[in-house]
Design brief:
Elements (H helix, E strand, L loop, with lengths): L1 H20 L1 E9 L10 E4 L4 E4 L5 E6 L4 E6 L6 E5 L5 E5 L2
Parallel strand pairs: 1-7
Antiparallel strand pairs: 1-4, 2-3, 2-5, 5-6
Length: 97
Amino acid sequence: MMRKTATIFLVLYALIHHSALAQTVSGVVRDGETRIPVPFATVYLLENKSGVNANEEGLFSLPSASLPAKIVVSSVGYRSDTIEVRSHRSLTVYLRP
């Protein structure tokens, strides 16, 4: 019984610890001239070679293992931009046409 309780405790601790360490890089992609959101822009995290598309309002969120991290943001009709992220605060990325 004691061994089972200790095992359950360790599993719960590991899950809680892992979720506390899981961080995200999130923000919004906007047009650099008009400041309107850029829908469905691609946001790629170089650190773990994963990416997401922003939604129709330009909002994105993707998991990041650690900071600092570099992201590449791109969309058709805009110049790609590489940004170094140093905090988990919400970002506003302005793409130039």
